[in-house]
Amino acid sequence: MKAEEIGELEILVNKLKFKAGQKASDLHDLIEDRLMTDFEDIPSYAKTAYEACREWSTKNNELQAAKQKQVNS
User: Fold this and answer.
1) Fewer beta carbons under 10 A from the terminal one: N or C of the chain?
2) SS3 call for 46
3) Under DSSP, is residue 34 helix (H, G, I), strand (E, B) or coil?
4) Quick one: which of 68, 66, 65, 59 has its CA closest to 18?
5) Does residue 5 sit in helix, strand or coil?
6) DSSP state of 2
7) Fold assignment, 3-72
8) Are 26 and 45 in contact (CB under 8 A)?
9) E-assigned strands of the chain?
10) 10-29: pLDDT as tens digits
11) Dist CA 21 CA 6 (whole Å)
């Protein structure tokens, strides 16, 4: 993978990390502010946060592998 491609992947990873943080924040806000009225929404918020974190983790692993390969080349 070229340095430019790694840079683009790094930007994507940072965007995905931000998105995952937003989803976690949404879940936190639900629990902190609306737990007693909206508790039925917890599974969908948790699933969304989990999926965002998993997407970040997958791309981050890809980025780390690309960086390691570049170092070893």
Assistant:
1) C
2) helix
3) helix
4) 59
5) helix
6) -
7) Helix Hairpins (1.10.287)
8) yes
9) none
10) 999 999 999 999 999 999 99
11) 22
- When computed from its CA atoms, the radius of gyration of the chain, rounded to whole angstroms, is 16
Tokens of 21: 């943080």
Looking at this protein, which amino acid is placed at residue 16?
A: L
Amino acid 62 reads: E
d(C-alpha 62, C-alpha 58), whole Å: 6
Q: Which two tokens stand for residue 51?
A: 């999926």
- Both tokens of 39, joined, read 């508790």
Per-residue pLDDT tens over the stretch 24-59: 999 999 999 999 999 999 999 999 999 999 999 999
Question: In the chain, where are the structural domains located?
Answer: 3-72
pTM across the whole model: 0.91
